[in-house]
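User: Some background: our group keeps a shared notebook of sequences we're curious about, and every so often someone picks one and asks for a predicted structure to add to the entry. Today it's my turn. The entry only has the sequence so far, pasted here. Could you supply the structure so I can complete it?
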Amino acid sequence: MDSVATSPAQRWALCSLLCLCLFYAGLLLGSRPFFPTPRPWEHFSRAQKLLAPSAPRPAPPPPPPAAAYHHDHDVVAPPPDAGSRDLGREEQEDDDEGLALGSAPAPAPAWEDGRECDLLDGSWVHDPAAGYPLYQAAECPFLSDQVTCRRNGRPDAAYEQWRWQPRGCSARFRGKEALEQCRNRRLVFVGDSLNRNMWESLACIIYTALPDRSRTRIEDVSSEYRIFRALDYNCSVEFFWSPFLVKLETKQDQTKALKLDQLPTMLKQVIGADVLVFNTGHWWTHTGKLRAWDHLERNGMLVEMEGEEAFNRALRTWARWVDHNIHPTRTRVFFRSISPEHKSANWCYNQSTPITNETIIPWFPKSLISIVERNIQSMKTPATYLNITHLSELRIDAHPSVYTTNRDGKPLSTEQRQQPIIYADCSHWCLPGLPDTWNVLLLASLMRYSSNVH
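Assistant: Of course. Here's the predicted structure to add to the notebook entry:
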């Protein structure tokens, strides 16, 4: 039988090669296991990433395919790639335990004129020379009569000429700049009549800046859905009426159920929009005959709970819908904060100038504001919290008051104006007016990549 190594030199070479192989095998096998165990700080790092400022976003990819809808329910099913953004076991258990998060962090700074500042920290400056108002109500044929205060007889005009001045930077937008922000974009407002107020304002800012106003369209798709289109700019500004964000359903017996775990079916139409601006709040505070629902539902069952808990569950449903259906590389998500009313001690009637911080008497329940902020903070999808509450609290002068319309859509009569306790509107805002500033801040935020919450 032949020998593999016939000489001492060959046997020595083979032995050396074998030893070398065993040495490297030991390095590979002995230094670490094949399946690394999780490091204890990885969970902390994941949590830190959720709270860290978002990195600059890449250019949007082509719109993703439409999400799948579950026909038995109106909540949209997660898209096929939602695994990385799916709800964890802790969040599922959170349904029964409630949120236990801290308050949302303060808004991130903005960069305007090369300087760092917070756009929401500033003061009101009376500055008619700066081009305020941004438009005239007579230029916008689609403005609703309810908020065209001067058309309804308001004698003063100073409320149109106040400009918000952030400390240390500028937040000025003109119509042409708004047009460029809207070019090839679809901006959608979803919420109550205060978001309709904001929608009318932005549509009017854009409309009056157009070189050819005949190249526009107003489409009343339904009583709950309106669209303004600037055809030459491939721009649309849309409004969906959804005052609770969750679904309000009329039953066969004509009672109304507020479904805390479902969103309206029509919301599938906003998927793929470039900008989404949500709001809710005021309708949750109505009581007695003004309350819009007869009972609450969850999982198809009637439930009893306090208003704050119902509001929290509704916001949680909305936040998870956004996490499952909105792709952050395609869509910028905003939540506009509570728009304050001026009633009781801070009554808007017969006011013509803003008030100071020292004279603010909060009307809206602060607990509801905290619920909004906590739910936004819990989201995986970056959402910018457009916190206009405080700067709007100062504008006691900017409401329609008695220069509005009655339920028939006609301006208040002289007799009705003499009964402000009954007829004064201290909830909505005159146009031109305060919502124009909200849109200036929205457009300024669109020029930034980072989010105010994450």
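Suggested note for the entry: The mean pLDDT is 79. The CA atoms of residues 24 and 30 lie 10 Å apart.
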